[in-house]
Amino acid sequence: MELSSALKDITFVIFDLETTGLKPFPGDQICEIGAVKIKDGEVLGTFDQLVNPRCFISPKVAALTHITNEMVAKAPPLKEVLPGFVEFIKDTVLVAHNAPYDLSFLALAFEKENVIPPEDNLVIDTLTLSRVLYSQYNHHNLDELRERFNIVYLHAHRGLSDALVTKDLFRIFLDKLQEKGITTLNGLIKYHGPFYRFPLQSFLLSGRYSLELVEELRNAAREQRPVFIEYKSTKEKGRVGRWVDPYFFLRYGEHFYLKGYCHLRQETRNFRLDRIVRFEPVREMAQPIG
């Protein structure tokens, strides 16, 4: 995708995931994928698929999404759904509201199900655009925005319905950008910042990063094993040591990151691959340095 491309000439896929909870690591799963494909405002197609998460959907989640255990019992598993979704988004720019959330589930799913992720799709976050274009407001979640802009679709908090809401929001944001003279993908970057991407596998293995590092982290993620890393931190001077549960790789701008659970900070963090200076698999936790 050329950054000089006119926005009206680009095919976008706006997508939304419904999940069994908020944390893809560990345990919560995708239970529905909804997406709509558009070009210059025209709808070209939709993708609407329940997924068998192979885990229990709680009454709280069922009340919110109206997706029940009975509904997904005969739905295909994610491994069977992902290839069709990858084909649907081929040669498009992706759009999602709170994109890092959806990408975290998708990236982990591609890794766990051993499905090759798309390598060329840029990902735009409408949450980021809303915060920049409407900075006078304090809240930018999808429910607030659908009410603010009077966007109504049946079955809120279902995949396709929320994708359609996001589609209309994206159209509103593009119209506002056009008023500012922004008509190309490159112009959009000035307001959005770097786009998200799935990791380019060939680039991960190109020599910029240690092949041993990439493969060890990938294997540790698949086998749910922790690793010890020494990391060049920008916030803490010098090297710091961390025990990390590796989850998946993600690309943001020109850099590749490992997303994983940091045992010291007790939260999920991003670790830039080119700042990992040493790593080793671990069997027992000890006191980290730094």
How does this structure look, described?
With 290 residues, the protein is of the alpha+beta class. The protein has 10 helices and 11 strands. Strands 1, 2, 3, 4, 5, 6, 7, 8, 9, 10 and 11 form an 11-stranded mixed beta sheet that branches. Helix 5 (126-133) packs across helix 7. The radius of gyration is 20 Å and the shape is globular. The N and C termini lie far apart (41 Å). The model is unreliable at 285-290 (pLDDT under 50).
Radius of gyration: 20 Å
CATH class of the largest domain: Alpha Beta
Determine the mean pLDDT: 88
Residues in helix, %: 25-40%
Largest sheet: 11 strands, mixed
- Series of secondary-structure elements, N-terminal to C-terminal: EEEHHHEHEHHHHEHHEEEEE
> How many alpha or pi helices?
10
- CATH architecture descriptor text of the largest domain: 2-Layer Sandwich
- Fourth-tier CATH superfamily name of the largest domain: Ribonuclease H-like superfamily/Ribonuclease H
Instruction: Measure the end-to-end span.
Output: 41 Å
* Strand content bin: 25-35%
How many runs of DSSP E, i.e. beta strands? Answer: 11
Shape descriptor reads: globular
